[in-house]
Amino acid sequence: MSGETPAPGATITVLMIEDDPGVAKVMRDGLSKDGLEVLHFAEGTEAMNRMGELEPQIVLLDITLPGVSGWKILQGMRTLPSYAHVPIIIVTGDRAEESVVKGFKLGADDYIEKPFSLAVLRARVRHQLLRHAVDV
User: Fold this and answer.
1) Among 3, 14, 48, 130, who pairs with 85 as Cys (CB 3.0-4.6 Å)?
2) Residue 4 is assigned to a structural domain of this protein
């Protein structure tokens, strides 16, 4: 994974790690409308084991996951050079101020609390992609 901008017309891949099937479907359906390809993992262990072989342009990460926690995944991603410039948005029901602060300290680019507006999620994803020079 190079962290480089995909060529014009290339598929933009969103790595979504979310254990709630209803929330995952809403996010996948909404992001697909924007032409984004969504690669979904429902639990942390498989996502953690496979993240080195994946090449997403953005990550949507729940914190409370079966298996490996989202915090551990976030830390793991930020230690890999291939994820150094990949925007990571935490999407979680954890509204605690300490968790928001922890997310940013560990390298998250944004923090969205559930329940969320799909329009706002899509706008924040687009914003992060544009900010990181990915053609959307």
Assistant:
1) 3
2) no
| Mean pLDDT, the chain, whole residue set | 92
- Comparing CA positions, the residue from 74, 90, 97 lying closest to residue 125 is 90
* Domain CATH code at residue 54: 3.40.50.2300
Among the residue ranges 3-17, 79-93, 105-119, the one predicted with the least confidence is 3-17
Give yes or no for a cis peptide into 115 (omega within 30° of 0): yes
Q: Residue type for 61, please?
A: L
- The size of the chain, in residues, is 136
Whether 80 and 50 have beta carbons less than 8 Å apart is answered as no
Cβ proximity of 94 and 71 under 8 Å: no
CA dihedral sign, ordered 5, 8, 13, 14? positive
* 62: nearest Cα among 113, 136, 26, 1: 113
